[in-house]
Amino acid sequence: MSEKVRSSKLKFKGEKGKKKRKRDEDDDGRPGGSRRRGENDAEPEAWVRPDAPNEIRGPTFIVHPSDPSPLCITYNSTSNRLIVSAVDKSDSDEQPSVLERTPTDVSQVWVTTRIAGSTTINLRTGTGEGKFLSCDAHGIVSADRDARGPQEEWTPVIASDGMVAFQNVYEKYLAVDETAGGGLQLRGDSEEVGFRERFWVKIQNKYKQEAHAEERKKKDASGPPQADEHDINKLYQSWGQGRNVLSSEDKKELKKARKEGRLAEAMLERRAKLKSDRFC
Q1: DSSP 3-state assignment of 120?
Q2: 60 lies in a domain?
Q3: Structural domain of 175
Q4: How would you class 170 by CB atoms within 10 Å of its CB: exposed for 0-12, middle for 13-18, buried for 19 or more?
Q5: How far apart are CA 56 and CA 104, in angstroms?
Q6: Would 7 be classed as within a structural domain?
Q7: How much is the pLDDT for 241?
Q8: Assigned domain for 272 exists
Q9: 211 lies in some domain
Q10: 25 DSSP 8-state letter
Q11: Mind listing the pLDDT tens digit for each residue in 135-170?
Q12: pLDDT reading at 106 higher than 60
């Protein structure tokens, strides 16, 4: 009797299990149609790449495209140390590309939180007691602080190819560096962004969609105010005892202007005309 294979998908604490749903059907009514799913239709927990800095939030997977094996920034909660190591140590020739990689262990995941009203972020370990990634004035990077301050702030910079660089409070960049003994470590004193300073970043789709929703709300809230025809009429078209002198022709003209999105401009023109007529 064969044993039931256990899923290797990484699941985070407090994350709800996804509901089963019917598969798409093709034209013959058979399951498994060829419908391509866009990013908006992807599962909330799917790992996707951010297109803008404000999308980097929640569980975050950071990979450096080193050769022959991509490197991952991880945190060892036992030794309380940052580790830069290969994403996986499999010797198989059939390895997924760096863009197809997803975390296989919670130690490979960082939790990104955003500073309110700022472009900076904090990166906190997903294991242990939650330590913040920090960098001091000498470029030494560590993850041993329980509180966040200026040295724990990072500004993500997304390049045209989608890769991300992380700038610290000293305006220097996070980089993968090779030590004298051939090991690897993180440094935070690079002046420019090159290969060592560029990372692929993945976040969960639900947080990317959350960022999109926030941007839509901001645009809606900051849109041009809708001019109220009644109020403008009352302000610009009346005098004496509040008598409105707007003619039928004027009303038609203002209604047309409102439809064309130039109501305020038309009202100002009408105001100038009325003043001219009044004092002539």
Answers
A1: coil
A2: yes
A3: 39-219
A4: middle
A5: 20
A6: no
A7: 43
A8: yes
A9: yes
A10: B
A11: 999 999 999 999 999 999 999 999 999 999 999 999
A12: yes
